[in-house]
Amino acid sequence: MKLLFQCPVCLNYSLEEPAYLNGVGSDEICYICGFQFGLDDYPDKDEGIVLWRTNWEKMGSPTVRYLSSEEKTRYYKVQQAQ
């Protein structure tokens, strides 16, 4: 099984490589939230991530509903009640 990396936008383990290496975006597109690292985060990485996450959540995290139960188990980070 290939090691997956966490998307800093949607917090799912859906990336095949780290989103950033030495501060440079990977150009990978998260298949769950659709964010492309190195493109959608320009010119301010932190601001771009927050804006994308906010908009994605307002839309109801739409891509997630298309995943099978197995994919959700593998990729979707379930938040545990503390």
Structure, briefly:
With 82 residues, this protein is of the alpha+beta class. It is built from 2 helices and 4 strands, in the order E-E-E-E-H-H. The chain has one domain (5-71).
Task: Give the topology, please.
Layout: E1 5-6, E2 13-15, E3 20-21, E4 24-25, H1 45-58, H2 69-75
Antiparallel strand pairs: 1-2, 3-4
Can you walk through the features of this model?
- With 82 residues, this protein is α+β, with helices and mostly antiparallel strands.
- It has one domain.
- The protein is 26% helix and 11% strand.
- The protein has 2 helices and 4 strands, in the order ββββαα.
- The chain has helices at 45-58, 69-75, and strands at residues 5-6, 13-15, 20-21, 24-25.
- The strands form 2 sheets. It has a two-stranded antiparallel ribbon with strand order 1-2. It has a two-stranded antiparallel ribbon with strand order 3-4.
- A hairpin with a 6-residue loop joins β1 and β2.
- The longest helix is centred in the middle third of the chain and has 14 residues, at 45-58.
- It is flat.
- The model is unreliable at 76-82 (pLDDT under 50).
